[in-house]
Amino acid sequence: MIVITSPDSVTNEFDIISEMFQEGLSLLHIRKPDFSITEMQQYLDRLPILFRHKLVLHQHHELAEAFGINRIHIRESDRATPDRFPKPVRCYYSTGTHTVKEFNNLQDHYTYAFLSPVFKSISKPGYQSSENLLETIKNRTNHNTKLIALGGITISNMALAMESGFDTIALLGTLWNSPDPVKNFRECLHHYNTIKN
C-alpha cells in the first residue's frame, strides 16, 4: 500500500508522515508540483533519514542522489525521453497511466505504474475516468510492471480494486482530507493486510 503526499501543505504534515512510517507505511510518493528545488530540499531535510529508502520523488529528481533516494516517479510527458532519467545506483522507476492500453504499452524499466482514477477522485472533485477501469483491467497484458490502483480509493472500496486485479493500491485524498490521517491510515492498512492475507 502506497501513500502520496497532498500537493498542498498539511498541518503537522511531518509528524503525520513519521507516524505513518512507524505504523508500517511501505512507500511515500512525494508529489509537491509547486515546490521550487529549495523548497523540496527543505521538505526532504525535515523527513526522517531512517525512511529515505521508502521515498519516491516526483519532482526535482536531481536531488535524489544527494538524499540517498533511489526511487523516481516519471511523469507521462517525460516517458518519451528515458535518457534524461536520473540514474542513482539501483534506481526504481514508477509512472502514471490513465488507460489499460497505456499501461500495457509501458517499457519494462518501470517497477510499477499507477492507473487512475479507478473511482471518482477524492482530491480532485469531478475527476473520473472515461472508461470503467475495473472492467478494462481484464485486458491487461503487461505483467512485468506492477499495477497500482489510484483515485478515490477508500477503506470501503479497496477490496473491490484488489479483487479486480490490481497488485496494490495508493491512497491520497482519503487520508489527507480526513480529520485524522494517521488513524485513517492505520485502519486502511489493517483492512488492506486482511484483504492481502
Description:
It is a single chain. The chain has 197 residues and is α/β, with parallel strands linked by helices. It is 28% helix and 17% strand. The chain contains seven helices and eight strands; from the N terminus they run βαβαβββαβαβαβαα. The protein has an eight-stranded parallel β-sheet. Strand 5, helix 3 and strand 6 form a beta-alpha-beta unit. Helix 1 packs parallel to helix 7. The radius of gyration is 16 Å and the shape is globular. The chain starts with a strand and ends with a helix. The relative contact order is 0.14. The model has no long low-confidence stretch (mean pLDDT 93).
Can you summarize this structure?
The protein is an alpha/beta fold and 197 residues long. It contains 7 helices and 8 strands; from the N terminus they run E-H-E-H-E-E-E-H-E-H-E-H-E-H-H. Helix 3 links the parallel strand 5 and strand 6.
